[in-house]
Amino acid sequence: HLYLFEAGNTGNYCFFDNISVKESTKNNLARVDYDGTASSLLVEPQRTNLVTYSSDFSQSYWTKQSGVTATYNTTETLSPDGTYNATKFIGNGSSGVLKSSISATGVVARSVYLKSVTGTVNVKLKDPNATVTTLTLDVTTEWQRFDLTEDNGTAFQGLWIDDIPVSGIYMWGAQLEEGSYATSYIPTDGSTVTRVQDQYSKTGISNLINSEEGVLFAEWKPKLSSDYSFISINNGSNTDSVIIGKSNNTTNMFIAVRSGNSYQALYTSGVYDFTVFNKVAVKWKLNDIAVWVNGVEVTNWSSGSAPSGLSKLSFDFGNSNEPFFGKVKQLQVFKTALTDSE
């Protein structure tokens, strides 16, 4: 709720209810994700929404099966973007809405926002071309984004929301993208739309970094995938760098200090939950290197050189490879090697 008071007179006010927040992104500005409790920097790869009408289900592009009726641009509820452009579907419990024959190969991520008209209902999410997996979804009276990621083994893939109940559901924001996980919603209206890869770096900050000693701290949550994913401070390459990241699996971190094109310290053991934010600190100093995870020192080295010429912060390995994709709540660089208590 939002109250607006007249200046100097708290007795006169107006009251706003049902407020929505819409994300707006400008060129060359970082994208921010808000999860309901806190904000984080959002870093994503290039992706294309291959669904050409992502929210306009009135188009013949979408197949409405027998037994399904629709109310387009319903005013019964705001869609997740804060407008009245969601569609209300009433079904018979065994029919649905689908788009098939989308040209896509390999693993694809299908996603859609759903909300029930009343209570909690079950619908199914699957691929209409060659169903491999069927997800049964618990749809509540709050908007949720559901996704199904798999390869159906054909050159054509699609999105099918099936078994729509008699009580009805609201639908908005369909997306199908080639990749191993669903990224943030890319709206379309008549054609596919590509969102370019987020790339963040900062040069000319050598005066803010002490190459001889310091601490790199990050609170981050990488996307789960089989790719390496790194954040680093470096000398413009990967020969000298301090690195925080994820290994090429979904459980192991990859923490390193490099000097003279060789590893002075490397930590890849330990199993961590990357579905939540982890706080990682790397301390470097001549013959004094340590890694801390969530407030606990997990390993240290009593020998090793410090990197030199650190002047750049980048969301990659330092050489534009293995970019970081995910979310970052905090990212700090200290110019001194902090004590254990610090």
Quick structural gist:
The chain is an all-beta fold and 342 residues long. It is built from no helices and 27 strands. It has a seven-stranded antiparallel beta sheet, with no helix packed on it. It has a six-stranded antiparallel beta sheet with strand order 17-26-19-20-21-22, with no helix packed on it. Strands 6-9-14-11-12 form a five-stranded antiparallel beta sheet, with no helix packed on it.
Note down, in words, how this protein is organized.
The chain contains no helices and 27 strands. It is elongated and about 70 Å long. A seven-stranded antiparallel beta sheet has the order 3-4-27-18-23-24-25, with no helix packed on it. The protein has a six-stranded antiparallel beta sheet with strand order 17-26-19-20-21-22, with no helix packed on it. With 342 residues, the protein is an all-beta fold. The protein is 0% helix and 46% strand.
